Amino acid sequence: MQLADLTSPAVRALSRDTPVVVPVAALEQHGQHLPLFTDSLLLGEIVRRAAARLTDRVLFAPLQWLGNSEHHLDFAGTLSAPPRAYLDLLGGLMENFIRHGFRRLVFVNGHGGNNVPGQQAVFEVRQRHRERSDLLLLFATYWRLGGHPREADPTLAQEHMGHACEWETSMILRIAPQLVGDYHRLKPVATGDAFEPAARGWVTQDRSAAGHIGSPHLATAEKGERLLRGFTDDVVALLERVLRWDGQSWNG
């Protein structure tokens, strides 16, 4: 079900155990070859596929395209909500749905920069409603849901998501090839950090003057379709678990 398509009485008539999904992404630079809307395009496609499989069991809010992209602001075209403003936006959305009586709220995220404020927002709202045991508040990034794309597709070179990388370039080649610039001559930019597992503060130019991180030159549309299928499976599996939750216990 799409929230934007429903009337207010139709929403009022829904079970308050209906999971509510809020997709969150970004509008930011994606190297020299991918559109600014890459994260939102990819998450929108994954959510579209997931919604088609979950029919009338899950309520999907419209995709929130403005994300926390401060680390990309040195590149033209990037738009960003400052971290505290973004955290408050997500918290306010949760409070809206809680006010309407919904109890199972899931952010599905498509941009790495949203992870920290998203998890903090979920934490803060849970503390404000600490007397309740019937709330399930989740923040989930689609490529961190436990799938192993490289095991499913040995043709992939990257083991992890980068930025405007083999994975993202492949998926955009699958859904919007007309938006992809010349990626064949781009040189790979190494992922990872010598100080891991410590979390390092960084801006994109610390890591990549070109704006991409990973190996976009290895992308193909065929890899993109396999990635999209796998990530959709992961999102659907999470939402099936939310549907099965017993409404009270830690493990459901």
What would you say this structure looks like, in words?
The chain contains eight helices and four strands. Helices cover 38% and strands 8% of the residues. The chain has a single domain, classed as Rossmann fold. The protein has helices at 8-12, 38-54, 83-99, 115-128, 149-152, 166-175, 204-207, 221-244, and strands spanning 20-24, 59-60, 104-109, 136-141. The mean pLDDT is 96. By secondary structure, it is of the alpha/beta class. It has a four-stranded parallel β-sheet, with helices on both faces.
Number of helices: 8
- pLDDT averaged over residues: 96
- Helix fraction by DSSP (H/I, runs of at least 4): 25-40%
Query: Which architecture per CATH?
Result: 3-Layer(aba) Sandwich
Please provide the count of β strands.
Answer: 4
- Give the neighbour order of strands across the main sheet: 2-1-3-4
The CATH class name reads: Alpha Beta
Sheet-strand content, in percent, reads 5-15%
**SSE class:** alpha/beta
Low-confidence stretches: none
Secondary-structure element order, N to C: HEHEHEHEHHHH
Number of domains: 1
Name the CATH superfamily classification: Creatininase
User: What does the radius of gyration come to?
Assistant: 18 Å
Instruction: Specify the overall morphology.
Output: globular
CATH topology, by name, is Rossmann fold
Spatial separation of the terminal alpha carbons: 24 Å
Report on the biggest sheet: 4 strands, parallel
